[in-house]
Specification:
This protein is α/β, with parallel strands linked by helices. It contains five helices and five strands.
Length: 149
Amino acid sequence: MIQMRILFINGPNLNLLGEREPSVYGTTSLQQINDRVRDRAREAGVEVVFYQSNHEGEIVERIQKARGQFDALVINPAAFTHTSVAIRDALIAVGIPTVEVHLSNPAGRETFRQKSLVSDVVVGTISGLGEHSYYLGLQAAMEFGKKKE
């Protein structure tokens, strides 16, 4: 029996994981991460859905459509982390417990990457642990999401 549903949202260029800057983001593809997250979720009786877009408006629309469908969100806004008030506002508007994840550690990178526009409106942020950030994001979402009785 499915106890909860979690939506994973991935922002721009994450479709290129495994190819793009492997020294920063690793050699694992987004599909491989999704498959591993799905396996862990299945073991816990949790349904996960994955979404990736390079377009800010599409991500905003997907967040809005999540209301009433998902118990928690895990989001890697990628470059939109530092620029998107629209994604921030959508997260606030839907009121779904959300965990922010990052493969790299933005705090240890260029100055412009060190400010997240969503970190203060999410349950928590997990970063710098490569693909393990996603696995820990799943755990946090299961803990803080709206569990079905």
